[in-house]
Amino acid sequence: MTGATGLLGSHLLWELLQRGHSVVAVGRNAARLDSVRRLFAFYGDADGRQFDSLGWACADVLDYDSLLAAFAGADEVYHTAAQVSLSRGGRAMWRCNVDGTRNVVQAVAEAGVGALCHVSSIAAVGSSADGRPADEDTPWQPSAGRSVYSQSKFASEMIVWQQIHAGLNAVIVNPGVIVGPADSSQGSGAIARTAGVPFYVDGSATVVDVRDVAACMCRLMDAQAYGRRFVVGGHNCTVRDVQTAFARAYGRREPGVRIGRPALMAAATVLDALAAVSGLRFALTRQSVRSVTSRTVYSSQRVTEATGIAFRTLAEAAQNCRSYADFCAGA
Fold first, then answer.
1. Number of compact structural domains in the chain
2. What pTM, to 2 d.p., does this model score?
């Protein structure tokens, strides 16, 4: 599994082990496995036996030979490694997400791996023009407003589709915003920090518990649902709903003051200009404003029918993050 020390990757490791699989975690830095050990302990692996059963292979998605060695003898490969950001991008993100995926699928083929599960994103799914939920068949259209992340995930998915048409057994999943226990300032860690912030913006979010994404991936691979893509969106809600769920989980003030999109975009324009001349990075960018004020919603009907998954609620996902934070604080 690539990206094994990330939010999704670490939860997928746990899910696969619970299903009795022998798993090799693939990553660039073995030191980051400490976060995986801590997560396993949170989920009940107090004596570390589950963690100790993991194999480890040091490899980089941009180093083809290291991938080929890591995949040797594998029955399946789960490709979760990616750079995720709406506030920055460029060549490094493109290389990781696109060139890295190309290396992964080629190494899978050369190593004789039986099947691949590729993690794409709802950012690679199109937007519905009539307001209905977008799904796997909604075409993605390039536009000036597309983030580098969206472009890179669409391009990487196209690489997988090319190999599927050439005979590769592969499942593609397109998760929404994944929420779960996180140590970093990215993803769920950043969302958790909004707990207690009194401001909110109008916008939609498709949010899914990381445990549900991992379960769906395993069920789809078990069902050999090859040659198909699946939106794993969980729940469509507002950005305010997300902030409120985390505020309640962390026992903090719920958001009540609305900030309009024009004001946010004006501030982001200034910060983008400052970033261009200073090299500084800011979380608030014009692209991040476009993302959080989007009105697009997504349908997860296909994956629900294929796997029978009953998605956890947003409140359950937020509470899991809080419980993990408490666990780490008391460790």
1. 1
2. 0.91
